[in-house]
Each structure stands twice: as C-alpha cells, then as structure tokens.
User: What shape does this take?
Amino acid sequence: MAEQSRSEKLKRLVAVQRHLERIAENELADTTRHRLDVTESMERVMDAIGSSDPVHMAFSVHYAERYGRLTIKDQQLEGIQTLIQMKVQQERTKGDRLEEHMKDARELETREADDNAVYDIIDQRFAGATPASSKLQNS
Assistant: This one.
C-alpha cells in the first residue's frame, strides 16, 4: 500500500468526524421528536383532566399521575437533549479543526512540492553547465 500523505490521512479523519457529527445530529433529532411526543401526550392528558365528560372525571387521579410521570420524562429528555446538543457542537468543532489542519497540511505539501520542483530545475541547470567528465578535463 502506498504511503499516504498527512493531508490524505487528515481527509479521512475529517470524513469520519463528519460522520460522527451526523450521528449526533440524528440522536438530537430523535430526542427532539420523542420530546414532542411527550409534550403532545401531556396536552392530551391536560385536556382529559379538564374535560367535563364523566368518564374522564372518574379517571382524573390516574390522569394526574400520568401527567406527573410525563413531566418527569420531559425533564429527563430536556437534560438529554442539552447533552446531545453539546455533543453535536463538540463533534462539529473537532471536524472544523481537523479540516483546518488538513488544509494546512495540503498547503505545506503543495509548497514542498513546488520547492522541490524549483530545486530540480536548479539542479538540472547546473548539471547541464558542467561536463560529465570534468575530472578528466582537469588533468
């Protein structure tokens, strides 16, 4: 396998990091969606508690307990959502830094290749000026 340059290795790391960022974003979307479901359930329970229908009045204690559990679940999901948002930001920051390092490495490699090309031209120029058998001509 051919030796990879630093910029190519960093390019692969950037791709992996961006994938991790997308995974974290998907986790955030799932948590947000789940939290919306809990909020909708809370609203339905509140509507049932406030209903004048005798069936709902008989279950008002159960509805209150359910509302309490949903409130706790919403608070837990809010904490999880905050943590995942921080994780998304961290992954994005890591990806951005790796991308900057990759660009810097690519720039250095390009500069080194350009310098080597100039040195090759200089070497060819001086190699053409001196004869191959210069030791023989001095005798």
